[in-house]
Structure formats: structure tokens, C-alpha cells
């Protein structure tokens, strides 16, 4: 996929909202280097929701100020809008992306802001959701993750899984295998 910077911004702006999503309001602690992934398999629908401090994604929590920070933000947003860079959904499950939403106003290009926000001194978070429809959800027994490969400052990932066999929790760490296991 070859995108110009303007095309990327236009696509990302379409996916982003201007409201922040405080992680604490959703029951997640804001801890740098950590993130949470909720994986829900409900019938033929697979939904993945990543909640993270922006620091765990791009290494900072403010509007990009330097060329390097702008590049890091654009790289992260390009990755987030391309789920195969993050999740290796087994082909046997026949899952296709239905929709996605990314909320990270601090990374939003200036032109897309409807009103200025001063995030100085605030914690900034990211929430991204991807929803897939699967033709053979019973073939989805594992989900390899590439989050640690794509986001260098992410050190730990708490994964909560809800599926046909119940609920579970996994704690994944950088350097160890990063794969969600579905209980059957």
C-alpha cells in the first residue's frame, strides 16, 4: 500500500474522533510501557480493542513537536489502520475486517482539530477497535500478535479474552511469545 502523507492524514482523520478516551474511565490504569487488549469472539464476530497510553505506542503523549515525532505518529497511525501488521488472524477462520475506529486526538493532524486542545500535563491515551466477521470462527484457536514488534516502547500487554468457552486473562511480555490462546 503506497500512501502519500496527505492521503494518510485524510484516511486517519476519517477514523479518529476529537474526544479523548481516558483509560481510567474504562477500568484500565495508565501505565507507560503497558497496554490492554480485549479480544471478544461472539458467534461469527471477532472484536479486538487496544487501549494504551500513547507513550506505549509512540514514546510520547503530546502533539508531535519534532519531525521525528511527526514521523513516529504517522508510522503508528499507518500501522493501526492496517490490522495485519498487528494481528495474524489465521486464514482458516475466514475473518474479514468489517470496520475499525482509532481514537488518538493528540496524534490528529492540526487541520482536523475542530477546536484546539492543550494537552500539557495530561496523560494521553489511544483506543483502537477492529471488528471482523469470520466464516469459520470455530477454526480460530489462537491469534498471534505483532504489537511488540510494531511498538518499541510497549513492554507488557494484558489480554482479556471472552469467547465460546468463557473468559480468561493473559499477561504477555516483550521478548516472550505473543499469542492469544482461545480456550475450547
Automatic annotation (TrEMBL):
Keywords: Signal. InterPro entries: ZrgA-like (IPR021253). Residues 1-25 form the signal peptide. The keyword Signal applies. Pfam families: ZrgA (PF10986). This is DUF2796 domain-containing protein. It comes from Rubrivivax albus.
